[in-house]
Amino acid sequence: MRPSIAWLAVLTATLASPRFARAAITQPGFTETQWGFTTGDLDGIAWAPDGSGRLFTIHKGGAVRITKLMPAGTSMLVPTPFATITPIYTGSECGLIGMAFDPDFTSNHYVYFFVTVSSSEQQIIRYTANGDVGMDKTVIVPGLPTAGANHDGGAVAIGLDGKLYWSIGDQGGGTGVDANLTSLASKVGRANRDGSKPSDNPFDDGAGPNNDLIWARGFRNPFTMTFQPSTGALWLNVVGTSYEQSFVVARGDHGGWNDFENNQPAGFIVPAIKYRTGDLEEFSLAAAPMGAVRSGGVVTFRTTNRHGLRKGEKVTISGVTDASFNGSFYVDTVAIAPATTTFTVVQAGADATSGAGRVQTLDQGNVIAGGTFYEGTAFPAEYRGNFFYTDFGSGRVQRAVVGTGTTLTQVDHWATVPTAIDAAVGPDGNLYIGSYGGNIYRYSYDPGTTQALVVSKRYVDWSEGNDATFEVRLAVAPTADVTVAVARSAGSTGISVQSGASLTFTAASFRVPQVVTLRAVADADGTSEQATITVSSAGLTSVPVTARVLDAAGPLVLPDGGLGGEDAALGGDAGASADGSVTPGDDDDGCGCRTGRAPEGRGTLAVGLALLGLGLLLARGRRARARVRAHAQRGRRG
Question: How far apart are CA 15 and CA 23, in angstroms?
Answer without folding.
Answer: 12
